[in-house]
Design goal:
By secondary structure, the chain is α/β, with parallel strands linked by helices. The protein folds into 3 domains: 28-204, P-loop containing nucleotide triphosphate hydrolases (Rossmann fold, 3-Layer(aba) Sandwich), CATH 3.40.50; 221-283; 298-363. The protein is built from 19 helices and 7 strands. The protein is globular and about 65 Å long.
Length: 379
């Protein structure tokens, strides 16, 4: 039944995939993002965690570099959460210099700009040390932008990016520059001060889950272990995950390492139960734990949970972009929009794990109500 070495290194569970990872699944967003940035568009890849955002960024950046586009990939979560604006911006410029192999001494340059604010230094550096020193197209990816939402000074940062975009109207040189924002956020979240113009530029890409046809690139990893049942097994995996990138990779990896004989539907269903439905699965599985925490920590928790309960009850809930509850629900990863514009639960795993019982237990005050109920019963 089993042939050759078990391909533990074929599937990647969690983390960013390298451009040449054999289990990378290409989706329409791959082609769309590449097309847009090559045409000079600013783009936003803003969606729930573990949908393949960073892997898409790395793969697109590699293709851009192959086409001789100058690229910088900046993970702003590494700049710190308790830093002064000057430290944060200086760290950002150091990363641009490193990624784009600029010759400027950033610390010396920064010290020479004492009369300018940190955000003014940022825009000057982009203009004079990046655009002016590099010919051709320049694309700056800003990853993990949700890490900036708790910082008190990054409204200016996103306003500065918007200002660089607006410079195109008067200076064609700025058309060589494009920013791509990547993270778990809405464009409306980026500039928190409602008295300021919102971050209303760029094309927002939809990063959809895999289709069965797209997921067929995973078959070689399954075929190395069980060539006769690989297609049937992939269909059953997709039945549960519905193309969720992380869950699909995880189930494939767990299946090839399980040494189950046959790979029948019942065996895969048992594996799903063991991994995701057994008591304590939410605490043990990062993806489930993150999804639960995102909902519980939402400032609109009650409204989000009520909206989700309506989706669970199969009531028609239209995907309203301006609804904060729906936005939080989508960014949690629990739901996705149908082609008709309605919300549905993301996949069958989530539907079982995050069912109506979970909604009730997640409502604020649930534990206190239970304690009070049993206290009255004892009296």
């Amino acid at each position: 039944m089993f042939r050759g070495a078990i391909p533990y290194d074929f599937f990647r569970v969690g983390g960013t995939l390298d451009p040449d990872t054999p289990s990378y699944v290409e989706r329409p967003a791959d082609r769309e993002l590449l097309r847009l940035v090559l045409s000079g568009e600013y783009c936003n890849v803003l969606t729930a965690r573990q949908r393949g955002k960073s892997s898409l960024m790395i793969r697109t950046a590699a293709e851009l570099e192959r086409r001789e586009v100058h690229v910088a990939k900046i993970d702003v979560s590494g700049l710190g959460a308790n830093v002064e604006p000057s430290e944060w911006y200086l760290g950002f410029l150091k990363l641009i210099r490193q990624e784009m192999h600029l010759e400027v001494d950033v610390i010396e340059w920064w010290s020479a700009q004492q009369k300018l604010s940190p955000v003014q230094r940022f825009t000057k550096f982009v203009r004079e040390e990046t655009l002016a020193k590099r010919d051709g197209k320049i694309v700056i990816f800003v990853d993990e932008i949700d890490s900036t939402l708790t910082l008190g000074f990054t409204d200016d940062f996103f306003a500065a990016i918007r200002a660089l975009y607006n410079e195109r109207a008067t200076d064609p040189e700025y058309k060589r520059l494009a920013f791509v924002l990547v993270g778990v956020a809405r464009p409306a979240d980026l500039i928190k001060d409602r008295r300021r113009t919102p971050y209303n530029i760029g094309r927002t890409l939809e990063l959809r889950d895999f289709t069965l046809r797209e997921a067929e690139v995973l078959l070689p990893g399954l075929e190395q272990v069980n060539p006769r049942r690989s297609r049937v097994a992939l269909r059953r995996i997709m039945y549960w995950t519905e193309g969720h990138p992380f869950l699909t990779q995880k189930l494939c990896a767990e299946l090839v390492s399980s040494r189950l004989d046959g790979w029948f539907d019942e065996q895969i269903d048992s594996l799903v139960t063991e991994l995701f439905f057994d008591p304590g699965a939410i605490r043990a599985e990062f993806n489930l734990k993150y999804t639960e925490r995102y909902v519980r920590e939402s400032p609109r928790r009650v409204g989000v949970l009520k909206m989700y309960r309506r989706v669970l009850e199969e009531k028609q809930v239209r995907d309203e972009e301006r609804s904060l509850e729906i936005s939080h629900l989508k960014l949690s990863g629990l739901v996705k929009a149908t082609p008709a514009g309605y919300l549905r639960v993301r996949n069958r795993i989530y539907e079982r794990v995050f069912g109506t019982d979970w909604v009730q237990k997640s409502m604020p005050g649930f534990c206190e109500r239970i304690t009070d109920f049993f206290g009255r019963r004892r009296r």
